[in-house]
């Protein structure tokens, strides 16, 4: 339960020197903030791919399962140790319940990308309230995302894909990216190829359903 992990009372109380010691060391002012959040990051494959694609951006995975979080921590530490070029210092992971504590970790407008990749489907109607994308939670995501920030969602469950898309379409603070924008975004292809879950779906020849939306500046 939640009592087993610490919960910061506000974003200013998160000790990021524990997560990004080398970055903080090099940048005394601690001026950098986390910009990408991978929600329900699982085994961390996306973070690892993004780390070298955006070496100057700080990113964090949020994961509920204790053992999985510990595994991702170890995986990142091992990569840092074996990298001769000082790579992987910009990624970290935290154990938390993202459905409850996003505003404890991020300030208003702090994030430029949020990822919700292959989230648990919670099929039964009475469990829909447990889905990580909902109208209510999108209010929180719109709060922590900056104007122009992007929310990436993907699933192999068609019904969940339609649900996530519908929630985003009807939310006043999000608009869909155009096909041209999707084609130009190098992150889009990683949603499947870099995640453990995406790789599993690809191995089994499964279909995926994406909804990728921009946080707009003002509701029209
Ligand atoms: N995104 C990863 C991928 O694509 O490989 C993992 C997908 S996995 C099916 C869903 C993950 O979300 C699980 O690791 C689960 O523990 C995590 N999760 C579920 N609910 C969560 C919550 N409320 N907060 C944080 N993580 C959560």
UniProtKB/TrEMBL annotation:
- Protein family according to the UniProt entry: Belongs to the class I-like SAM-binding methyltransferase superfamily. TrmB family.
Q: What pathway is this protein a component of?
A: tRNA modification; N(7)-methylguanine-tRNA biosynthesis
Species of the source: Arabis nemorensis
Q: Does the keyword tRNA processing apply?
A: yes
Q: Which residues bind S-adenosyl-L-methionine?
A: 40, 63-64, 97-98, 117, 195-197
Main location (coarse class): nucleus
Q: So what does this thing catalyse? A: guanosine(46) in tRNA + S-adenosyl-L-methionine = N(7)-methylguanosine(46) in tRNA + S-adenosyl-L-homocysteine
List the GO molecular function terms. tRNA (guanine(46)-N7)-methyltransferase activity; tRNA binding
Annotated EC: 2.1.1.33
Keywords, in A-Z order:
Methyltransferase, Nucleus, RNA-binding, S-adenosyl-L-methionine, Transferase, tRNA processing, tRNA-binding
Q: Entry's Pfam families?
A: Methyltransf_4 (PF02390)
Q: Supply the name of the protein.
A: tRNA (guanine-N(7)-)-methyltransferase
Q: Where is it found, in Gene Ontology cellular component terms? A: nucleus; tRNA methyltransferase complex
Function, please? Catalyzes the formation of N(7)-methylguanine at position 46 (m7G46) in tRNA.
Q: Does the keyword Transmembrane apply?
A: no
Instruction: State which residue ranges cross the membrane.
Output: none
The record places the active site at 120
UniProt subcellular location? Nucleus
- Broadest EC class assigned to this enzyme: transferase
């Amino acid at each position: 339960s939640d009592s087993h992990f610490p919960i910061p009372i506000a974003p200013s109380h998160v000790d990021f020197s524990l997560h990004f010691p080398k970055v903080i060391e090099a940048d005394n002012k601690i001026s950098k903030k986390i910009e990408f959040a991978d929600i329900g990051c699982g085994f961390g494959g996306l973070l690892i791919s993004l780390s070298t694609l955006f070496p100057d951006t700080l990113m964090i995975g949020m994961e509920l399962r204790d053992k999985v979080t510990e595994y991702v921590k170890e995986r990142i530490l091992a990569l840092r140790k074996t990298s001769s070029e000082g790579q992987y210092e910009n990624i970290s992971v935290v154990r938390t319940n993202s459905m409850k504590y996003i505003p404890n970790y991020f300030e208003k407008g702090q994030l430029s990308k949020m990822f919700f990749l292959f989230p648990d489907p919670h099929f039964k109607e009475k469990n829909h309230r447990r889905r990580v994308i909902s109208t209510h939670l999108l209010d929180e995501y719109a709060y922590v995302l900056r104007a122009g920030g992007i929310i990436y969602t993907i699933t192999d469950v068609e019904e969940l894909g339609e649900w996530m898309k519908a929630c985003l379409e009807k939310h006043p603070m999000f608009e869909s990216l155009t096909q041209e924008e999707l084609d130009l975004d190098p992150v889009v292809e990683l949603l499947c190829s870099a995640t453990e879950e995406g790789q599993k779906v690809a191995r089994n020849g499964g279909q995926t359903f994406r909804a990728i939306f921009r946080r707009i500046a003002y509701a029209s």
